[in-house]
Design a protein that fits this description.
Low-confidence stretches: none
Bound molecules: uridine-diphosphate-N-acetylglucosamine
CATH topology of the largest domain: UDP-n-acetylglucosamine1-carboxyvinyl-transferase, Chain
CATH class of the largest domain: Alpha Beta
Distance between the termini: 6 Å
CATH superfamily of the largest domain: Enolpyruvate transferase domain
Radius of gyration: 21 Å
Largest sheet: 5 strands, mixed
Number of helices: 14
């Protein structure tokens, strides 16, 4: 297992390029199973979660060819003959559960392991299952597996209201609905850019989805879809991570390239409130921090609200802001494993229920820290980059799941991070 050793107090300068989105790529990969011909997906990041999903696809008989140098994935489902996803792979990555909707649409049958627990508490899949049932799927449980069947091979289609709105359930229901016999309606559907992109990709394959970007999606089922050539979006969470990281050191001056500013939602305005100067172009943003950061409270909510995937980074930035502010997570109440670790670095952070209160500015001192989740891990790296002395971040395999070449990108912008085997 690798760890990072970070020499602190380094501003970020120059340019840094954002990779393709992990969370948007995974639904596109599942969608590729529904074409009669191969699909080519561009701007796919080289990440462990992508490698895991490649293997999930391969188990079914799908041929997957990842041109890693070109970040291009070719997925050929012509020989898909085994519509199952085993526990060994699904437990590594919850998004493998997208196979349920995709295989159901492809084969009229799917046997997919339940994902199990997660580093930040319970993450249920009840809405995925209820949604598929509303479309006409027959669902049974067998020794930790979900077995879903479409009567007569194709789902009839139906209506479902998500409560709460869920990205994953919207994806699964969409994948199943596009090849149903009738019309389906998803109410209170997730509006995240990742869902919009999936709808665009499916429509480019011949699907008939209306209401893109709204909370009501209407899907007229079709009997056949074709493969597509489709470009994945930049990773909006990686973009936000680098923006916040740049803000944390007063001497930073960082331009973040290959972003889509329209995907940032309310984060963009909230970020400006901390006092940074941001200069946007069509696909980049330059971040110049002020001498003193303002302490700005946030609540993580569904899109376009502040993303839960950026709340740990924001809380970490608040240790360097002047004053007291809070971070509340309304999506995942337990996603605060980073708080005691920040405390070890010298932060004044107090957790109460789903709110952490941070008083800044506190000088951070290097120490050994670790986390068991992706966004918490990157936050500890960010803290290490402004701390005095040396910080060790253990178990960085979580970072390799979701950030492509993280230390190389940051080092090219002035960070001093080395990767060593623990
Ligand atoms: C996705 C993202 C994750 C992000 C999250 C919220 C991927 C691979 N992961 O996760 O990075 O943090 O969106 O933006 O894209 N819920 C239920 N029942 C369900 C499903 C969800 O109650 O069946 C609840 C969850 O507990 C949570 C809320 O719905 O409180 C939203 O979760 P959801 O949008 O489903 O998150 P994921 O799709 O798992």
């Amino acid at each position: 297992m690798d760890k990072f050793i970070i020499e602190g107090n380094t501003p970020l300068k120059g340019n840094i390029t954002v990779s393709g989105s992990k969370n948007a790529a995974l639904p596109l990969m599942a969608a590729a199973l529904l074409g009669n011909t191969p699909s080519v997906l561009e701007n796919i990041p080289r990440l462990n979660d992508i490698y895991t999903f490649n293997n999930v696809l391969r188990v079914t008989g799908t041929v997957v060819d990842f041109n890693e140098g070109g970040n291009q994935l070719t997925i050929n489902p012509s020989n898909l003959s085994f519509p199952e996803s085993p526990y060994d792979l699904v437990r590594k990555m919850r998004a493998s559960f997208y196979m349920l909707g995709a295989l159901l649409a492809h084969s009229g049958y799917a046997k997919v392991s339940l994902p199990g627990g997660c580093a930040w508490g319970p993450r249920p899949v009840n809405l995925h299952l209820e949604g598929l049932k509303a479309l006409g799927a027959e669902i049974t449980m067998d020794k930790g597996y979900v077995i879903a069947k479409a009567p007569n091979g194709r789902l009839p289609g139906g209506n479902f209201k998500l409560e709460p709105s869920s990205v994953g359930a919207t994806v699964n229901i969409l994948l199943a609905a596009v090849k149903a016999q009738g019309v389906s309606v998803i109410r209170n559907a997730a509006r995240e850019p990742d869902v919009v992109l999936l709808c665009q990709a499916l429509n480019s394959m011949g699907a008939r989805i209306k209401g893109l970007g709204t909370s009501e999606l209407t899907i007229e089922g079709v009997s056949e879809l074709q493969g597509t050539t489709f470009r994945n979006a930049p990773d909006r969470i990686e973009a936000g991570t680098f923006m916040i990281a740049a803000a944390m050191h007063p001497e930073s001056d960082l331009t973040i390239d290959n972003i889509d500013p329209s995907d940032l939602g309310h984060f963009r305005q909230t970020f400006d409130q901390i006092g940074v100067t941001t200069t946007y172009s069509d696909n980049a943003v330059r971040v110049q921090p002020p001498e003193k950061l303002n302490a700005v409270s946030i609540k993580a909510e569904i899109y376009p609200g502040f993303p839960t995937d950026l709340q740990a980074q924001w809380a970490t930035m608040l240790t360097q802001a002047h004053g007291e502010a809070t971070v509340t997570d309304h999506i995942y109440y337990d996603r605060f494993s980073y708080v005691p670790e920040l405390g070890r670095l010298g932060a004044n952070a107090v957790l109460h229920e789903n709110t952490v209160t941070i008083k800044g500015k506190t000088p951070l001192q290097g120490a050994s820290v670790m986390s068991t989740d992706l966004r918490a891990s990157v936050s500890l790296v960010m803290a290490g980059m402004v701390a005095e002395g040396t910080t060790e971040v253990l178990r960085v395999y979580h970072l390799d799941r979701g950030y492509e070449n993280l230390e190389k990108k940051l080092n090219a912008a002035g960070a001093l991070i080395s990767r060593v085997s623990e």
